[in-house]
Design a protein that fits this description.
Layout lengths: L2 H17 L3 H11 L8 E6 L6 E5 L6 E5 L5 E8 L9 E7 L4 E6 L7 E8 L5 E7 H4 L11 E9 L10
Parallel strand pairs: 1-3
Antiparallel strand pairs: 2-9, 3-8, 4-7, 4-9, 5-6, 5-8
Length: 169
């Protein structure tokens, strides 16, 4: 067990003792002290709007940010994340989760020159999708390892018009 985990446990214990919390409050108090991860991302509370970019910053301890998207129309959209090109430890990584159908798609560092990552998904109107952004570096961490990623990024969802033609050979 690393020193950080021990300190988090001590801090949680002191917090509970000083506050006189009931047992059912324990998980909520300890959860606030845990570093976020794929299974516990920091919810930004932001609903992405088509065509609008949202700027944010990843910091150690908040290396996974959760956004939401509920399309008004069904169709193809591009979920995009971009971080500064050449950033030392921040490489764009997107995970799109469809909780209703227990399905997900993801992509990391689509273009190293631009640090742009894009996932194209066919979405259903009125259905909510979770959009998780992080750095590919964070996706490779061993269990319990501290995230080292920090830096700015921007995220968006853009409607697409795709025309498919059946080819003949």
């Amino acid at each position: 067990m690393n020193r950080r985990r021990i300190m988090q446990g001590v801090a949680a214990s002191l917090l509970l003792l000083s506050a006189g919390c009931a047992d059912d409050d324990f998980e909520s108090q300890v959860g606030e002290l845990r570093q976020d991860s794929l299974n516990n991302p920091t919810d930004t509370g932001i609903d992405l709007e088509p065509g609008l970019w949202h700027d944010n910053v990843l910091v150690p301890g908040e290396g996974w940010h959760l956004y939401h998207f509920t399309p008004e129309q069904s169709g193809w959209v591009a979920f995009q994340m971009q971080a500064p090109p050449g950033h030392e430890n921040l490489w764009s990584y997107l995970r799109i989760v469809d909780p209703e159908h227990n399905n997900e798609v993801w992509a990391g560092v689509g273009n190293k020159r631009t640090n742009l990552c894009e996932v194209i998904v066919n979405v259903d109107a009125g259905h909510t999708y979770d959009v998780i952004v992080t750095s590919q570096e964070n996706s490779l961490l061993a269990a319990g390892a501290t995230q080292e990623t920090d830096g700015p990024y921007t995220v968006a969802v853009s409607p697409l018009t795709l025309d498919f033609e059946a080819g003949t050979e």
